[in-house]
């Protein structure tokens, strides 16, 4: 095969680029990777890769970041992830899927969230049979149209209650959207109030329209009982709406409203996990430009007070504190531990700001 001069020049340029700007490659697994503590490079042996894979699986299944010195946290995570019950003389285990991964030993659904979630769950359990048992009061009702609107209402109610039970607090915007869908009401609007079954909007209003569920359509006691079931369904939804509207500010991230320790600890746990992952990503970025673990061990960072610390020491301190020390402080001391963690994080943030300005 004879190559043209242009092809030869392109190949030559590609080889020169590869030599001048080599590409660092490494093994990638499904659970992410990164440098280890004390400056250990991410490009470790196969055993290290297997360890990271196992730790990633534990985190995904239990919602708990592996720490060899925390058997108590592991046991707490295991108890929350696996339900044991005795059946006919033997024990059966059931794994309970988590909506997302959190530090299992640091937070719970408490306070206002526990209150509204418990109330919403009871309301849902009573409302769904009423929804499924509704019968049309209009003679020209279309069966497929009725089944369709029932499915939409059922789905919205289930997803609403599930959202209210998410660890770390529900997403305010999503809950507001479900109430907008179901009732055509917006909780954040001043002066908004619930409406009666005859005047309800949203999906429930459309349900009333397709089934003919109005007081004017009632002719017999049996039909009135059917209409009453719809009224109860609307009242259940209204009751959840009123509770949410009263407690809504407690779930926002703007700082207003009463905050509850259990919910906030889950969010803090997520933030600490992000810090640990950021350190791992920093190791990877440094490795990609050939700033390896040995060089990090001797490269000094100077601070305004005249003191210095190596890059490896600073990163390992951040990783150790966010991954081990901070969760342990919070578990042992509650709000006092949160205060101690905050002060250390402020100190670390100040040091990092000085490094960034150099």
What does this structure look like?
This protein is mainly alpha-helical. It is 61% helix and 5% strand. Among the domains are: 141 residues, no CATH class; 97 residues. The chain contains twelve helices and four strands; from the N terminus they run αααββαααααααββαα. Helix 5 runs antiparallel to helix 6, helix 6 runs parallel beside helix 7 and helix 9 runs antiparallel to helix 11. The longest helix has 28 residues.
Task: List descriptors.
4 strands; 61% helix; single chain; 12 helices; mainly alpha; 358 residues; two-stranded antiparallel ribbon; two-stranded antiparallel sheet
Mind sketching the topology for me?
Blueprint: H1 5-20, H2 46-62, H3 71-81, E1 82-87, E2 90-95, H4 111-132, H5 143-164, H6 172-183, H7 202-211, H8 221-247, H9 261-288, H10 293-298, E3 300-302, E4 308-310, H11 311-333, H12 335-357
Antiparallel strand pairs: 1-2, 3-4
Helix pairs in contact: 4-5, 4-8, 5-6, 5-7, 6-7, 9-11, 11-12
Count every beta strand, where a strand is a DSSP E run of 2 or more residues. 4
Treating each run of at least 4 consecutive H or I residues as one helix, how many helices? 12
Low-confidence runs: 25-47, 99-107
Would you tell me the structural class of the helices and strands?
Answer: mainly alpha
Helix content: 55-70%
Compute the average pLDDT. 78
The order of strands across the largest sheet is 1-2
**Main pleated-sheet profile:** 2 strands, antiparallel
Question: Could you tell me the strand content as a percent range?
Answer: 5-15%
* Span of the ends, CA to CA: 55 Å
Shape: elongated
Element pattern in H and E: HHHEEHHHHHHHEEHH
Radius of gyration: 29 Å
């Amino acid at each position: 095969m004879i190559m043209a001069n242009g092809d030869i020049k392109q190949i030559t340029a590609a080889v020169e680029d590869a030599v001048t700007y080599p590409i660092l490659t490494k093994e990638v697994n499904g659970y992410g990777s990164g440098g280890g503590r004390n400056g250990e490079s991410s490009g470790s042996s196969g055993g290290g890769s297997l360890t990271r894979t196992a730790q990633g699986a534990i985190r995904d299944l239990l919602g708990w970041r592996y720490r060899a010195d925390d058997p108590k946290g592991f046991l707490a995570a295991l108890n929350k992830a696996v339900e044991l019950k005795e059946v006919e003389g033997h024990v059966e285990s059931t794994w309970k899927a988590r909506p997302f991964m959190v530090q299992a030993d640091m937070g719970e659904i408490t306070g206002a969230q526990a209150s509204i979630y418990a109330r919403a769950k009871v309301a849902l359990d009573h409302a769904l049979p009423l929804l499924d048992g509704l019968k049309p009061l209009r003679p020209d009702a279309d069966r497929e149209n009725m089944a369709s609107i029932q499915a939409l209402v059922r789905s919205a109610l289930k997803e609403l209650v599930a959202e209210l039970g998410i660890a770390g607090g529900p997403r305010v915007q999503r809950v507001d959207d479900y109430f907008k869908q179901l009732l055509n009401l917006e909780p954040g609007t001043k002066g908004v109030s619930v409406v009666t079954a005859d005047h309800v909007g949203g999906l429930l209003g459309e349900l009333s329209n397709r089934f003919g569920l109005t007081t004017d359509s009632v002719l017999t006691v049996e039909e009135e009982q059917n209409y009453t079931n719809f009224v109860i369904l609307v009242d259940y939804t209204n009751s959840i709406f009123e509770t949410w509207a009263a407690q809504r500010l407690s779930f926002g991230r703007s700082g207003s409203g009463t905050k509850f320790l259990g919910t906030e600890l889950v969010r803090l746990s997520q933030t600490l996990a992000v810090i640990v992952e950021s350190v791992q990503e920093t190791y990877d970025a440094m490795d990609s430009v050939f700033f390896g673990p040995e060089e990090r061990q001797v490269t000094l960072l100077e601070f305004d007070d005249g003191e210095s610390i190596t890059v490896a020491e600073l990163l390992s301190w951040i990783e150790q504190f966010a991954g081990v020390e901070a969760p342990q402080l919070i578990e042992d001391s509650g709000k006092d531990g949160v205060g101690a963690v905050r002060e250390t994080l402020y100190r670390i943030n100040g040091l990092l700001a000085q490094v960034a300005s150099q």
